[in-house]
Structures are given as C-alpha cells and as structure tokens.
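Figure S7 source data.
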Amino acid sequence: MEYFLTEEQLMIKELAAKIADEKIAPVALQYDEEGKFPHDIMKIIADSDLCGVYIEEKYGGLGGGILEMSLVVEELSRACGGISLAFAGTGLGTFPIILFGNEEQKAKYLPDIASGKKLAAFGLTEANAGSDAAGVQTTAQLDGDEYVLNGTKQWITNGGEAEIYTVIACTNRSKGARGFSAFIVEKDTPGFTFGKKENKMGIRASCTRELVFDNCRIPKKNLLAKEGMGFIVAMKTLDRTRPGVAAQALGIAQGAFDAALKYSRERVQFGQTISSFQAIQHMLADMAIQIEASRCLVYQTCRHIDSGAKNISRESAMAKVMASDTAMKVTTDAVQILGGYGYMKEYPVEKMMRDAKITQIYEGTNQIQRNVIALELIKELSSKK
Ligand code: COS
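Tokens for the predicted coenzyme a persulfide complex:
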C-alpha cells in the first residue's frame, strides 16, 4: 500500500524500523520481565537524530510534526510498546512547550529534548482526576516571583526518568476548569520528589510513577501561556498526542500480526501448515483489514493536524479509538493463532496483548474519546442549523 509519505518521512520510518528490528526486538522480552527503563535504546534513537523529529529546526529538531512523531512511535512499538514510550511520553511532555511556550522557554528546553539529552513527561492525572481532568487538586500559589506547588500526580509516564515536566495545577479553585495553569518543572527542584513506582500489566519497560510536590518553588517564568489556561493547554496537547497513542497501538498490532502470520506458515497440524485452514486465513485477513484501516486513519489524522486545521479533537479521538481497539483485537487473535505457545512468555504475542490494553485506557479512555466524538458531531450539526 502506498501511504504517500515524503522521502524524508520514509527515511524516518525506515530508520526507526531498523532500530526496532536490530536493537529493540532482541531485548524486548528481557526489558519487559525486568521492568528496565531503556536509557540505552534512547541513546541509540538520539544518535540517529530521531528525538527531535517533531521539533522545529531552529531548536535543533528535524522540523516535522505529528506525522513524523507517529511514524517513529509506530515503528518502535512494532518491536516493543513499552520501550517506545520513553520517546512517545517525551512527546506528550514536550507538546505543551511547543504549543504554548514563549521564545525563552522554547530556547531553554527544546534543544535538549531534540538532541535526546533530556526526556520529558506530562503531569495531569491524579488519584481523583482521571477521566474527569478538571478534578485536579494539586495547587500552585504565587508568592513573589515564585509559584509554590503542592500535591501529588499519579501514573506519570517517564516519571523519575525525565528531566523536564509539564504540570497542570490549580491556581484558582473558584474558577473550575478555568482556574488551572500549566508549568514547567525541572527534576531536582527542591520540594519535587518521586513517589510510588507502579508494577504494571504491560508497557513494563516504561516507568510510571508519582510526582510529589511539597512546597516546591519554581520561578514565575516557568508558567506556560497565562494563568487560567492550564486546562486548555492540557486539552490542546492531548488533541495532538492521542494520534501518537494510536500509532503506538498500530505498531503493536502490526508486530502481533507479523508474528501470527509467520507462525501460521510454520506450525503444522493435521499434516498441513495451519495457514492452509480457512479458519486461520479469515482471522489473518480480518487482522490485516483492521490494521490497514487504522493506519490510513492515523496517518490522515496526523496530516490533518499538521496542516494547521483548527478542529482536530474529533479526528484525533477517532484515530485513538480505532487503532487501540484494533490493537486489542489483533493481539488477542494473534495469541489465539499461536494457541498454547501464544500464551507462553517465550513467544512475543502475550506481551503484545498486555501492552495493547493500555492504549484503550491512557491519554483518555476510549469511553471519553467516544464522548468527545459524539459531542463534536452534535456541535457540528447544531452549527449548521
Ligand atoms: N480544545 C480546546 N478547548 C477545550 C477542549 C479542546 N480539546 N476540550 C475542552 N475545552 C475547553 C472547553 O471549551 C471549555 O471551555 P470554556 O470554559 O470556555 O467553556 C473548557 O475547556 C472545559 O471543557 P469541558 O466543560 O468540556 O470540560 P469537562 O470537565 O466536561 O471535561 C473531557 C472534558 C472529559 C473531554 C476532559 O476532562 C478529558 O479529556 N478527560 C480525559 C483526560 C485524559 O485524557 N486523561 C489522560 C491524562 S494524560 S495520560
């Protein structure tokens, strides 16, 4: 299938694919088992100049957008959906700066992210603020030239491993969603520590950890955009990074499909390879259809966002739902095709099934995505009346 990628996009995709096949696939199971954070793989990605594919050239990046970021995420995730998250989670932590940072903030933080010297993370979720993002309790109080942060963020991807954090906190509780603000917080700031490290079902090479703020003082100039803009910073960021989750799901699905197809040509039962049975052929065909449909929607959504389109929430949510539901279905079917072997840890598909599950949950559950899609559809119809 021709995906109408430019020569540069093809080069990026091929480079990421080479890293996935040669450096990630051989260690994916080991990293999963040990829950080891992939600093060494990130160094390889950085040395290949891929860390800044979505960052402007003037800050040391390659000047691409969401599509370039997603192509890298897709290929890395084909080999390991956990290892790829060190890269993808950094994208999530970086987009608030790309979208809302002033020149000084961009010049200070983006070059180190583009070179791969520093990782980033995004701190929105809390114990009582999951789907209800407006439930954030962490506070930021202005005191002279500093904001004082107090509260705990939960389930933060790259937590403890990243150096740069974009954090949403409440600056005026009486204003509801309009009372939040977004901040850049650097690791090693006094009063900023890391709490519980999660023991997860999948994406185990990724670190998921609490961020704890205890009278953590940060300079006033670390405020992103304006006070009161924090909820919008978070929503506009997620609109642009949900296709990245979709790309992660797409990569995981492709990896599982490749393994299932290969196995079906090798496994002999009743005197024939199982690929000669129609029951297996139809499963493989359905998996391939779902993957192709997801890829087309993901790439098209990325292009729509990169074109500068204003209304992107619906498309972004659709890509995330489609690709993550596909990943869950395809990885489950891949385990089924491998049968008893599929259920064993020696084969890669049981890990892929575990890794796929999170893509239906994080950066907004698929139930929240469907809410967003339905509300946008209704809004569009109302605006035509
Ligand atoms: N872009 C720009 N503005 C947006 C927006 C978007 N995508 N989504 C909402 N807003 C604005 C609204 O227009 C509204 O502005 P006004 O104050 O001017 O009316 C404001 O933000 C509040 O929006 P809304 O009333 O829709 O907020 P809700 O509290 O009802 O929450 C959902 C909306 C459910 C969509 C939001 O909470 C959400 O996305 N939840 C999932 C969070 C998530 O993804 N968590 C994962 C964490 S990161 S791994």
